[in-house]
Design brief:
alpha/beta
Length: 276
C-alpha cells in the first residue's frame, strides 16, 4: 500500500461485498453493514448502477469475496462451539464482523496498518456504526513490528485459543512473510487456535492474472506471491499446524452455490483452514 494512505484494495473489496448485497439474491454472504461502511455516496452509486462490475470477471471476484467471508465466519462458528472466544481479523480493512457479530462474549481484535485503521475508524464514525466494547484495535507498522507485537499491546490472551481470519492479504505479501507469520501464530498461540486464509494460486491463465496484477500494482499494492495448493498445505504443516484443510472452488461451490437460479458461482479460488 502507499505510505500514509489507506488501502485502496480494502476499499475495493468492501465495494464488492456491498454490491453483492444488492446484485445477488439470495446473497451467499449476508452483511447488513456492507452498504453503510462504504459511505453514503458509494452506496448510492451501487444502488443506482446495478450494472456496476456486472461482467463475468468482476462477478467471479465478487463470488470469491463472498465465499471467503462466509467460510471464515462459518469456521469461527464451529470454533466458538469448541469454546474459542477470541477472533482476530488480520488486515481488517472495512470488514464488519466486529460490529454485527452475534457473540456478546467474544473479543474481536482488528490488526491493520495505522493509516488504514485510522481511515476505517473515521468511516465508522461518519456512518454512525457503533464500536462495541468487545472490539480492540491493534495498529501495526509491518515494516517495524509483527502482528504478535500489536496483539500483545491490545492485550490479547495468548494462553487461550484464538481464531484468525486472514482474507485478501497474502497475495500482497512475499512467501517468507506469509510463512513467517504462520510460524509466529503456531508458536505463540494456544492449542486449538485456528486460522483461515485465502491465497493466490499459480495461474493457468497468465494473461488474466497479468491484467489484474497490473491494476493492483497501479494502486500501489502489487501482487507478490502465488502457490501450488498441495505444496502450500505441506508448508503450512511445516510451520507448526497439526491439522490443515484445503478447500478449492469446487468444494466451496458445493457448500454455498448449489440450487441457485443465476450463474453466480466460483470459477477459481482456494482457502486453507489450519489448527494449532
Amino acid at each position: 500500500m502507499i505510505e500514509n494512505k489507506p488501502s485502496r484494495t480494502a476499499q475495493g473489496a468492501a465495494m464488492h461485498r456491498a454490491f453483492h448485497q444488492i446484485k445477488e439474491h439470495p446473497p451467499v454472504f449476508t452483511d447488513p453493514l456492507a452498504l453503510r461502511i462504504v459511505g453514503a455516496e458509494a452506496a448510492d452509486t451501487l444502488q443506482r448502477r446495478t450494472d456496476w462490475h456486472a461482467n463475468r470477471q468482476a462477478q467471479t471476484r465478487r463470488a470469491f469475496m463472498a465465499a471467503r467471508s462466509r467460510y471464515a465466519e462459518d469456521q469461527f462458528a464451529q470454533t466458538y462451539a469448541r469454546g474459542v472466544r477470541q477472533y482476530v481479523v488480520l488486515g481488517a480493512g472495512l470488514d464488519t464482523f466486529a460490529y454485527r457479530a452475534p457473540y456478546s462474549d467474544v473479543r474481536v481484535f482488528e490488526v491493520d496498518h495505522p493509516a488504514t485503521q485510522g481511515w476505517k475508524r473515521a468511516r465508522l464514525s461518519e456512518t454512525g456504526i457503533a464500536i462495541p466494547q468487545h472490539v480492540s484495535y491493534a495498529p501495526v507498522d509491518f515494516e517495524r513490528e509483527t502482528i504478535i507485537d500489536g496483539l500483545a499491546r491490545a492485550q490479547i490472551d495468548f494462553t487461550q485459543p484464538v481464531f484468525f481470519a486472514w482474507l485478501g492479504v497474502t497475495m500482497y505479501l512475499d512467501e517468507e512473510t506469509i510463512l513467517g507469520t504462520l510460524r509466529m501464530i503456531a508458536a505463540k498461540t494456544a492449542s486449538g487456535s485456528e486460522i483461515v486464509f485465502d491465497f493466490s494460486v499459480v495461474p493457468k491463465d497468465r494473461e488474466a492474472r497479468g491484467r489484474f496484477a497490473e491494476r493492483v500494482a497501479q494502486m500501489g499494492e502489487p501482487l507478490k506471491s502465488s502457490f501450488d495448493p498441495t505444496d502450500l498445505q505441506d508448508k503450512v504443516r511445516g510451520c507448526g499446524f497439526g491439522e490443515v484443510e484445503l478447500r478449492d472452488h469446487r468444494a466451496l461451490n458445493a457448500l454455498y452455490f448449489t440450487d441457485r437460479s443465476d450463474d453466480f458461482k466460483l470459477r477459481g479460488g482456494q482457502m486453507i483452514r489450519a489448527r494449532v
